[in-house]
């Protein structure tokens, strides 16, 4: 058994990750690595996943970073996506020639579920009667068919830049109302119309635990995800994506941090930046935690569950993603363009 793995997981939760559990995890990781080699597969894991999944991942990151990694996959035949359903869909959008697997179909997203394609089409139709210049900016935390209806996608880290750069005065921002308010505050010259959705994990975080922590630990840095409520965002030293929080913590001279987001990020920070202290004002996402090592193992053994998209939806979502990069000066030529041949 790897003592290093035991040390890593002990920093997350020494009671849960006892010696016997870590020994079983180590054996399972070795089997998964063998299966990855047999299937010629790569494994991508979101920052909110279980810490043992980080150990077998080829790449970890936020939804944008993982999409870019998925686009760069050339030699592998299979992409196993340990995240939630819309992220696996995006991997299929940007690399349609690969078999993309989601290990557990229960890994959905309550935020993405608030915006269905028919409802979005109806809302766009209504608003365009009032605002003929309306543009639709869709957060990446949406299904592929909703992305396909939008003028541009955005992430939590570039949402302000995308809205500022897009030509229209009136913007329908889908689906997160908290991120929409964050954008509207930073781009007051435009009219941002928010979809009525939110992430249940971030929305239930309140200011109380944050203010108490700042009182108890002078100098602590408060890092907040933009999906949080406005009264929480106003208490932050920085509002950042999950990858932005990791970069901030590594570069900062501070030693104490409060990561206000899903708890999986704190697990990752404890592992990756052991010389610093990370406190929690977080909640567990039942969807992100739906995927276990058992699911990953079965996914590789049986090549389940495969993500499929119609070519019309894939092309539309691809256009929206390309527009995001064009608006922010980060065009990615290797993303699958509309008209590319989809996987059979």
Provide an overview of this structure.
Helix 4 (63-72) runs parallel beside helix 5 (85-94). Strand 9 (221-224), helix 13 (230-233) and strand 10 form a beta-alpha-beta unit. Strands 2-1-3-4 form a four-stranded parallel sheet, sandwiched between helices. The chain has a four-stranded parallel sheet with strand order 6-5-7-8. The chain has a four-stranded parallel sheet with strand order 10-9-11-12, with helices on both faces. It has three domains: 3-108 and 289-302, 3-Layer(aba) Sandwich (Rossmann fold), CATH 3.40.50; 111-198, NadA-like (Rossmann fold, 3-Layer(aba) Sandwich), CATH 3.40.50; 205-282, Rossmann fold, CATH 3.40.50. Helices cover 46% and strands 14% of the residues. It is α/β, with parallel strands linked by helices.
- Give the strand order, joined by hyphens, for the main sheet: 2-1-3-4
Largest sheet descriptor: 4 strands, parallel
Radius of gyration: 20 Å
Judged by helices, strands and strand pairing, the structural class is: alpha/beta
CATH topology of the largest domain: Rossmann fold
CATH class of the largest domain: Alpha Beta
What's the SSE pattern?
A: HHEHEHEHEHHEHEHEHEHHEHEHEHEHH
Total E-strand runs:
12
> Which superfamily, in CATH terms, is the homologous superfamily of the largest domain?
NadA-like
The percentage of residues in β strands lies in: 5-15%
Fraction of residues in H or I helices: 40-55%
Q: Termini separation (Å)?
A: 42 Å
- Tell me, briefly, the overall form: globular
Which parts are unreliable, with pLDDT below 50 for 5 consecutive residues or more? 333-344
Number of domains: 3
The residue-averaged pLDDT reads: 89
In CATH, the architecture of the largest domain is: 3-Layer(aba) Sandwich
Number of helices: 17
